[in-house]
Specification:
heterodimer; A: about 220 residues; alpha/beta; Rossmann fold; six-stranded mixed sheet; four-stranded antiparallel sheet; 7 helices; 10 strands; globular; B: about 350 residues; alpha+beta; 2 domains
């Protein structure tokens, strides 16, 4: 991490189908610690691929990528990095249906050596933060779309990550619920100084961020 | 919330499928416990009986003599052999009583005769009592003597009357049917020597008899083990099938777990624990059903006295451990597949 940058990406490349499809074609990005950045671009532009690279869900073919001090091109086992440094919020909440809301928030904390009582206490605190403490014992299927996405926010915060990555967090929500989720995310950024990187194709949503990065054909538009 | 709770949750979530999968293991385990248990119990009973009655060598009349009794001189020649000691003679002869053949056997050890009522002395089988209408105090005429029944034994399989060996020998004209003896020498060499020197006899060694019995029971055990293993194999295949389907259905869920930081080992562990749990619970329930089956079989075959020998601890623990380990093994391939899932592709899975 140099000059307060939490994400440093240089000439990052990623191809699919033996390189025929160039999802990322030499990306250069720097994101400061505590910054709220939105990544915009049309479908297939490479914005989600870029987010997956930052979150270590996928590996690049070439280039340099350092996130929260971790060189992701060199690191072999990325599960610990994902668990402790990154909080993911997906477009479709991706909660585990047979676990309760509380268990869904607890599950990322597993393996960090916390006591069960500590995990439950922290999960309840996070559910209170997203105003769902009264629905802790419910199953995700019993919640509305907006509520599920708020549970996903609580889950993303479980391990107190350095960076929150949100991939179209309002994409499957109506405007009212979408607004509520965005307010929570913005509040989180402002109060907790969490670095927030959000992929969206909605310009209104992107406008909430401090900075917007546009990706087109696997390259950053300047 | 941990991996184990996740595995429990997955089993609970797919109740019917889990029950059906476990049912395959239950049937396999119950079959193994029943077949191997009954065979083991019967085998050890046969071995015990063989060891009880067989000395190092047993001398009987040769089949070429056409008789099942040896005369007194032959018996005396055998008893005088210096290489033999610790003799036990048995005399068995038969008489036609009321038109049917009744067997009289001399015994040296009354404890082997399972008395139902009365006292030792002249003990008849229950089947003899039923057929001839004898009871304690009844008179049986044999070889111009009269025997008074003193007791009735539990046995019903054949028609036997037990009397003291010395009295049986006397009634049979000092003849004996078999002489059991111990030897310090090699039983095989000793038996060959005696056969060569005394005419009209056959000498068998204990090891020959025991080997014969053990070979037969060993074959029976192997056969039942093969049949039972096939049943268990079917159960294990159903575990592989269930776990593979489970992994496919949960592709997205497994992708989420990986995305939030679960390691490949934790993913594998969760799948293996789940399949092991199916095998363990199937093993436990299968053993219970197997034991119920053994109790039923032992009662039907009237082998209740050997019932506990049919449930050896090694078998019970062996099948529970075996079904658990085999199920874990069955989960290995699905677990490998789950751990190798590409996170991005898994998250896209619907």
């Amino acid at each position: 991490m140099n000059n307060g940058n939490i994400v440093e990406i240089t000439n990052l490349k990623k191809g699919y189908d033996k390189g025929k499809i160039k999802a990322l074609n030499g990306i250069d990005i720097q994101i400061r610690k505590g910054e709220f950045v939105s990544i915009i671009g049309p479908s297939g532009s490479g914005k989600s691929t870029l987010l997956n690279m930052i979150g270590a869900l996928d590996t690049a073919d070439d280039g340099l990528i350092t996130v929260a001090g971790n060189d992701l091109m060199l690191k072999k086992d990325l599960s610990d990095f994902r668990s402790k440094k990154i909080g993911f919020i997906f477009q479709l909440h991706n909660l585990i249906p047979n676990l309760s809301v509380l268990e869904n928030v607890i599950i990322p904390m597993y393996g960090n050596g916390y006591k069960s009582s500590h995990m439950s206490k922290r999960a309840m605190k996070l559910l209170k933060y997203v105003k769902l403490e009264d629905k802790a014992e419910r199953k995700p299927t019993e919640l509305s779309g907006g509520e599920r996405q708020r549970v996903a926010i609580a889950r993303a915060l479980a391990n107190n990550p350095s960076i929150i990555l949100a991939d179209e967090p309002t994409g499957s929500l109506d405007s009212k619920n979408g607004k509520m989720v965005l307010e929570r995310l913005k509040e989180l950024h402002e109060k907790e100084n969490v670095t927030l990187i959000m992929v969206t194709h909605d310009m209104n949503v992107a406008a909430m961020a401090e900075r917007t990065i546009e990706v087109l054909d696997g390259q950053v538009q300047t | 919330m941990d991996l184990y709770s996740l595995a429990f949750n997955n089993i609970r979530r797919r109740k019917l499928r889990s029950i059906l999968t476990t049912l395959g293991i239950i049937i396999g385990v119950a079959t193994i416990v029943m077949l191997l248990g009954v065979t083991t119990g019967v085998t050890s009973a046969i071995k015990d009986e063989t060891n009880k009655y067989m000395y190092d060598v047993v001398v009987t009349p040769a089949s070429s003599t056409g008789s099942y009794l040896m005369d007194g001189q032959t018996a005396s020649d055998i008893r005088n052999r210096s290489e033999l000691y610790d003799f036990r003679e048995v005399t068995v002869f038969s008489e036609d009583i009321k038109g049917d053949r009744l067997f009289f056997e001399g015994t040296n050890n009354w404890k082997d005769v399972k008395l139902k009522t009365g006292t030792y002395g002249v003990v008849i089988y229950q089947s003899v009592a039923d057929k001839y209408g004898y009871s304690i105090g009844s008179k049986i005429k044999v070889k111009n003597r009269e025997l008074t029944v003193t007791g009735i034994s539990k046995d019903t399989q054949s028609f036997y009357v037990f009397i003291d060996q010395s009295y049986a020998k006397q009634l049979a004209g000092n003849k004996v049917s078999a002489i059991y003896a111990s030897t310090d020498g090699d039983p095989k060499t000793v038996s060959e020597e005696i056969e060569r020197q005394i005419n009209g006899i056959s000498v068998e060694t204990k090891s020959e008899k025991v080997n014969e019995v053990q070979e037969m029971t060993g074959q029976a055990l192997l056969f039942t083990a093969i049949i039972a293993s096939v049943a268990l194999l079917v159960g294990i295949i159903s575990v592989i099938n269930t776990m593979l389907i489970s992994v496919m259905e949960r592709t997205k869920e497994l992708g989420v777990l990986k995305a939030i930081g679960f390691t490949n080992w934790e993913i594998k562990g969760s799948i293996l624990f789940e399949s092991g749990l199916l095998g363990f619970s199937g093993g436990i329930v299968g053993v219970i059903f197997g034991i119920i089956g053994i109790i039923g079989i032992a009662n039907v075959l009237k082998l209740t006295e050997y019932m506990y020998g049919m449930m050896p601890l090694w078998l019970i623990l062996g099948v529970i451990v075996g079904s658990t380990l085999l199920s874990v093994l069955a989960g290995l391939y699905p677990a490998m597949r789950a751990s190798k899932l590409n996170v991005v592709e898994a998250l896209r899975n619907e």
